[in-house]
């Protein structure tokens, strides 16, 4: 795709204001012969865009690969060449530690991939596991609860690799990785009052923003570990009292603007925590927000809702551009059984701005694209955090 035309092509791809039927969208349900009802908790793409990793609430990881072939030389989304659910040769699934006796279905699951897809850190209420993604073997386990990890993120600058771990007791712990070895943690950041639910880095501003389940945002200096500023997100006008619930954060690729996601709102802040604009569930999208992320290039925001709908917003102003109804992508056999199935997590493809993956509350994973798209591979540094 020509980068001069990229913004136009991205914003025009989802040109229908309301997508109700499957005839207006490309849908691929990821194959899973032994599907379980455990909901999908985390769903990162690998950096090359050819693998999709799901962490489910039963502490089990699933990995799908788009394999390159004559029919699909670039390993892209294709109904004629479906992805393969990868299985280890020894038959042992990549499962998080649950030896502390906690029920993983009730724990806060979290995972993060390193930039080069070499490492995965993951936890489901027990010890944090560091996996080698090439072999799927556990390299180390560490940080036995309490406190349990509730959010994980890699910070990488040159040869420096630091694992940031948000915990259920509101602290943020830092572990250094050097020469494939995990060193002792050296820094603990603490100002939140309850569990950490999000972390996002701005390399240019040399800060990390953390968010908590009490809707508090904090900005920390990356070099000295000192808190720069903090504030609570503003509740909608129709709500009284303080907000509670998981709050997620993601930096725009300019590393100045920050997407803040709470069930009550989508908001754009600057890195100093000044709110620039907000959108609150209403009209065609009245249900609480379950997950939201920037697209590649940060021109769009994709949001999942707890009634099964998906909203696509113009990122700068949070203007609703397109609504995807549950009937457009959730099989009628599932939606007709009386239970509401909804996206628990939304992920965007790392170089196709109009492709998203949604992990569902019933354990399914769907990949969605507009019916007609001219994404191509975007050669750009405009990838979000």
How far the N terminus sits from the C terminus, by CA atoms, comes to 22 Å
Estimated share of beta-strand residues: 35-45%
Shape: globular
> Could you say which structural class the secondary elements and strand pairing correspond to?
mainly beta
Trace the largest sheet across and list its strands: 1-27-26-25-24
How many strand units? Answer: 30
> Runs with pLDDT <50, length 5+?
1-5, 376-385
**Largest sheet descriptor:** 5 strands, mixed
Helical fraction equals: under 10%
Count up the helices: 2
Q: What's the alpha carbon Rg, rounded to whole Å?
A: 20 Å
Mean pLDDT: 88
Protein name: Anaphase-promoting complex subunit 4 WD40 domain-containing protein
WD repeats: 189-230
Organism: Sorghum bicolor
Pfam family, one: WD40
